[in-house]
Design brief:
Distance between the termini of chain A: 13 Å
Oligomer: homodimer
Structural class of chain A: alpha/beta
Largest interface: A-B, 54 and 54 residues
Number of helices of chain A: 9
Strand order of the largest sheet of chain A: 3-2-1-4-8
Shape of chain A: globular
Number of strands of chain A: 13
Largest sheet of chain A: 5 strands, mixed
């Protein structure tokens, strides 16, 4: 068996595992994300551990697939990554040189999309899109069975404009979707409603996305109104993405998707209701992601598998 | 030589011509658009004229490609067309049965996109998008060299939401791009500024898109402010479309594109400035359409050519 080493490079930690062809992880190893100068060195120790796992399982490691936040060019350069504090760094080439194995690097939202498509909530369709709700909005798409990332892999679905002339976005534009529909946006919205309703249970705890969902479940008025406003914001961007890409399935991932149907059901109703001609002539499923935290590793490995097929 | 008969079915008139493999029109024949019951009959007389043109040129007619406004399913049914007052009509099958020639039917915005891609402003790239500014906003895309129309051809790019919670759209949603960026929207916006500035030259004429452009050229303040607001509206939707599809080229068509660089230059500056990471890492051209009124016929024929290759 030939495994692929999948590596998920995050802003605070790095996770790596040898991954079998059917998407199974042999063993996850982790390390803190170091400064850029020490990154290849830390990756080296992780790759060595993963290789040993592969050998122990009677397998080999045939390629390395890495995923990271930021704008990654099609040839695997980190053009810009806020989280990794990197700019124009040819990480893919550095790692490939070190290990003499075919190596790829892909944006983490695209990795998650590919993982869901191959092994998770995206199986069985040829056209899907995925939204990952976190500090920002990650977005990816599969078109005709192939990962689609746009020219030089610069697709940035989180930056569609839903509120023209609205809040300043970090990207320099105004009114971007992620300013209204990220987990950070939900927290901002919930804080506003908590102030409006001093009796709200939201005032008694640290406000996180899942805390808001808990309060909705308990019937809290501030939380319910906040969630309704947030779902409209998230839904408006999903309507836009669906009207352009018209996928068969939309997968929603990120921490908030842990709230499950409480959150997905009203979102589904909102989007199907506002989407062009609804789902009458072109059905659309809206479902929760299934791959959880392993999506980054598995998707990175899945992307690398193209190089050895 | 084998020609294809291209037919552009509009709300008020039908235009048809035999089209050579390199996109040349032999002779355009036109007819008024009749009621649904008489449509196939009118198409029959047009097809007969086009066939005669082909024979006269020493060629044959190998297929029929039709384009029409509305939502056309992948298998060529008119699911819904406001302009043609049709619903669930299997126009493609009716015509194919009549003429015993391979026949296709495609949405008119998709036809225009394909015409520009093959023979016009879209040549030389593999990923492009096209916006057609008219009563609404038509939208089409080519991805990896193939026309992309979404599940069951239901892509509706004019209905991305740019102004969440904004104006009611005919589609049942609110704040759709086409409510803010169609030619009708420009006229509405210009009327507002004409009222605000009674001395404006706009008050002396019938307000059309090109009339507004003429007044901008003459230095009229109301027209200039209206155009600026309109370009921001059009630009915000183009930013969204570009951030999702990240094409190499965006082609702008419709009557207003006749205003040329007066209109395209500020639009280009607006979009490149707001687009995610600008064009630094993934260049984007924004250009005027080149195919003019023949785009519908040529694109319809180009789409049909797939059936006989």
């Amino acid at each position: 068996m030939r495994t692929i080493i999948g590596i998920d490079i995050g802003g605070t930690s790095i996770k790596a595992s040898a991954v079998s062809p059917n998407g199974r992880l042999l063993c996850i190893h982790t390390a803190e994300t170091p400064k850029q100068e020490e990154l290849v060195c830390v990756l080296e120790s992780l790759v060595r551990l993963c290789k040993a796992d592969a050998v122990e399982a009677g397998a080999s490691a045939a390629a390395i697939g890495m995923g990271s936040p930021g704008i990654i060019s099609t040839d695997g350069k980190v053009l810009f990554s806020n989280n990794l504090r990197m700019r124009n760094f040819d990480l893919r080439a550095e790692v490939e040189k070190k290990f003499q194995l075919p190596t790829s690097l892909l944006n983490d939202a695209f990795c998650a999309t590919l993982a869901e498509y191959r092994f998770g909530a995206g199986r069985g369709v040829k056209n899907m899109a995925m939204v990952t709700i976190g500090t920002g909005i990650g977005f990816g798409a599969v078109i005709n069975g192939e990962l689609f990332t746009g020219t030089n892999s610069c697709m940035a679905g989180g930056h569609i404009i839903t509120h023209a002339g609205g809040l300043d976005c970090t990207c320099g534009s105004k009114g971007c979707w992620e300013m209204y529909a990220s987990a950070s946006a939900l927290i901002r919205i919930a804080k506003g409603y908590a102030q409006k309703y001093p009796e709200s249970a939201l005032n008694a705890k640290e406000i996180t996305g899942l805390a808001v969902a808990d309060c909705v479940r308990a019937g809290d008025r501030a939380a319910s109104e906040a969630m309704q406003e947030y779902i409209a914001n998230l839904g408006d961007g999903m309507v836009s993405a669906c009207n352009i890409l018209r996928p068969e399935r939309m997968v929603v991932g990120g921490g908030l998707s842990g709230a499950g149907e409480l959150f997905i059901e009203p979102l589904r109703e909102y989007v199907l209701n506002k989407m062009f001609i609804g789902a009458d002539y072109a059905p659309l499923d809206i479902v929760c992601a299934q791959m959880g935290n392993a999506a980054g590793i598995i998707g990175a490995a899945a992307y690398a598998s193209r190089m050895i097929e």
